Amino acid sequence: MVDDDVLRDWFCREVLPLERSLTQFIRRNWRVADDVVDMRHDIYELTLEYAHGALPANARATLFTIARNHLASCARRARIVSFDLVADLEFADRDIDLDATERHLSARDALRRVHDGMEQLSPRVREIVRLRKIEGFDTRETAQRLGIGVDAVKQQLHMGMQALADFMIGGSGRIVRPRFERRRKRDES
C-alpha cells in the first residue's frame, strides 16, 4: 500500500502532465464528445486505485493502458460497440508516442529542405555530396567513380556541405569558392 501523500505527489508529478495527451486519446477513440471529461476522470480514478497498491514504473504506459481498457469496457457496456472502435482500441500501442506525428512532420520538412538545398548545388558538387553523404562512399571510391582527384572530392564536398548548411538555415545555398591569394600575388609581381 502506497501512502496517500506519496500517491498524491506521484499523481501530480507523473499523471497530471499527461492530461492533454489523454484527452486527445479519448476524443480520438470515443464518439460522444460530451463524455470526454467524465471518461478522463474515471480513468484518473482507476489509475489511482491501481497505483494505490504500488506505484507503476512507467506512469504513461499505465495510464494509457487503463484508458484503452476503460474505453473498451464502456463501449461494451453501452452496447454501442462499433467494430472499428473496439479494433482501434485493441490495437492501440501501449507506449503511445503522441509526439511521433510532430517528429515525422518535422523530419519530412527537413528532408524536403535538404532536397531543395541539394537542387541548388552544381551537378558535380551535388553528385559528390550524394555519393559521400547519402550513398556512404569513401573519398577514394567517389574520386574513382567520378574520375577526379581525391583532393577535388574533398574540396568540393566541403563547399557543397557549407552551401547546404547555409540553405538549411535560410541562406541562398550558393557555393562560395575560395579565393586563391597566391594567384593574385603572382599577378601583381
Number of helices: 10
What share of residues is helical?
A: over 70%
Rg (C-alpha, Å): 29 Å
Distance between the termini: 90 Å
By DSSP, the count of extended strands is 0
Q: Describe the main β-sheet briefly.
A: none
Binned strand content? under 5%
Secondary-structure element pattern, one letter each: HHHHHHHHHH
Extract low-pLDDT stretches.
none
Structural class call reads mainly alpha
| Rough outline | elongated
Mean pLDDT score: 81
Please, how many domains? 2
Describe this structure in words.
With 189 residues, this protein is mainly alpha-helical. It has two domains: 4-90; 100-177, Orthogonal Bundle (Arc Repressor Mutant, subunit A). It is 72% helix and 0% strand. The chain contains ten helices and no strands. It has helices spanning 4-15, 19-29, 36-53, 59-77, 83-90, 100-120, 123-134, 139-146, 150-168, 181-188. The longest helix has 21 residues, at 100-120. The termini are far apart.
What topology emerges from the helices and strands here?
Blueprint: H1 4-15, H2 19-29, H3 36-53, H4 59-77, H5 83-90, H6 100-120, H7 123-134, H8 139-146, H9 150-168, H10 181-188
Short structural summary:
The chain has 189 residues and is mostly helical.
List keywords for this structure.
189 residues; mainly alpha; Arc Repressor Mutant, subunit A
